[in-house]
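Query structure, 386 tokens:
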């Protein structure tokens, strides 16, 4: 099968498709740094670095360098989701980034692939009363596609991370629609906010299934990486030990090294907070001394914001990897080093292979990783496509 990855970013979705045996023949991404990362790990994919709407115009006008209807078996992608994100305090249904959903559907309408997979954040389920997913499903139906919506927890599929995401499958005409994979790992139960109307679409373990594997931990993911200091790091890391877990073994680079083990420098007050939690793995802002507690969070007590300014635990899991490791939003302090997690550690949490090198400024590298579809989650989903 030949696939077209729209809004491809650093290529997490593409890597998952390729791992599942699908050829990613074309991809589109507008960010130049993400494109450099993508090209480096997908040398055989034709990558179009331009605005998706401009690319769509060229496509419809019959540009000979672009695929024709019938050439594409799978269109997959995650239109930029910040307009829907629960971490965006100013969510707006009229955010122009949300209109890229329409662009995605226009590609589907013109190219008529056999299968469609769309990925986005759970915030899309609650914005404007859930109108967006209903409109997407209705539009795909009108274009001739059978549809299935699933809400998946990445941790159920071998990720060391609490990450809920929404996926919509579409299959054209009489083609059977792929099921979503059943959970394989006994991941700690977590809450998904804003999905009340779609709770029947949450993919959960079968009740009483005792065959689930132990969940992957922070330590499983990053314990083999060398120690680095606040605001420093190593651009190229040569492995100094054998893998310390099966997860590390899966992700390691056969060339014997990895990249981007570098970290943001914490400011003075944030570094003081980090130091205050040095021996408190799995902690949050409530564990800080009174003088270091952020005043704007005091009114929340032990509520859902408890892991902000927190320290990860080696035996626990990562919070959702975001586009920047900002302590205000989540627990991003390393379990046993006084710093935030590095670019490579973020990539490990997202199951990017160690062979993938991220380009651009450090802020761009973090953003590319945070915006990506986890590789192993993408693999599990596309493995259901027979």
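Result returned for the query:
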């Amino acid at each position: 099968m030949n696939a077209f990855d729209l809004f491809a970013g650093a290529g997490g979705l593409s890597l998952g498709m390729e791992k599942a045996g699908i050829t990613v023949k074309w991809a589109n991404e507008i960010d130049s740094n993400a494109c450099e990362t993508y090209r480096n790990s997908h040398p055989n994919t034709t990558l179009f670095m331009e605005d998706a709407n401009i690319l769509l115009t060229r496509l419809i006008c019959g540009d000979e360098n672009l695929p024709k209807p019938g050439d594409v078996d799978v269109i997959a992608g995650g239109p930029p989701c910040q307009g829907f994100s629960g971490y965006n305090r100013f969510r707006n249904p009229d955010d122009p980034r949300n209109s890229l959903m329409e662009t995605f559907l226009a590609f589907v309408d013109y190219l008529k692939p056999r299968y469609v997979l769309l990925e986005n954040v759970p915030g899309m389920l609650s914005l404007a009363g859930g109108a967006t997913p209903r409109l997407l499903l209705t539009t795909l139906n009108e274009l001739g596609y059978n549809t299935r919506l699933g809400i998946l927890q990445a941790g159920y599929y071998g990720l060391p991370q609490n990450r809920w995401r929404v996926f919509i499958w579409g299959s054209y005409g009489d083609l059977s629609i792929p099921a979503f994979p059943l959970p394989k790992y006994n991941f700690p139960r977590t809450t998904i906010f804003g999905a009340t109307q779609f709770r029947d679409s949450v993919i959960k373990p079968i009740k009483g299934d005792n065959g689930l594997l132990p969940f992957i931990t922070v330590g499983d993911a990053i314990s083999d990486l060398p120690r680095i200091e606040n605001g420093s790091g190593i651009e190229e890391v040569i492995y100094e030990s054998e893998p310390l877990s099966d997860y590390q073994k899966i992700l390691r680079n056969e060339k014997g090294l990895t990249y981007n083990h570098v970290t943001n420098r914490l400011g003075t007050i944030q570094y003081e907070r980090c130091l205050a939690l040095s021996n408190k793995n799995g902690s949050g802002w409530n564990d800080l001394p009174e003088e270091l507690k952020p005043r704007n969070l005091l009114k929340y007590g032990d509520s859902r914001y408890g892991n902000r300014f927190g320290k990860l635990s080696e035996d626990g899991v990562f919070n959702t990897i975001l586009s920047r490791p900002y302590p205000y939003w989540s627990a991003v302090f390393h379990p046993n080093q006084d710093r935030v997690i590095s670019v490579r550690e973020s990539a490990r949490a997202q199951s990017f292979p160690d062979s993938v090198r991220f380009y651009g400024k450090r802020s761009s590298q973090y953003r590319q990783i945070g915006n990506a579809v986890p590789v192993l989650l993408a693999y599990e989903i596309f493995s259901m496509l027979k």
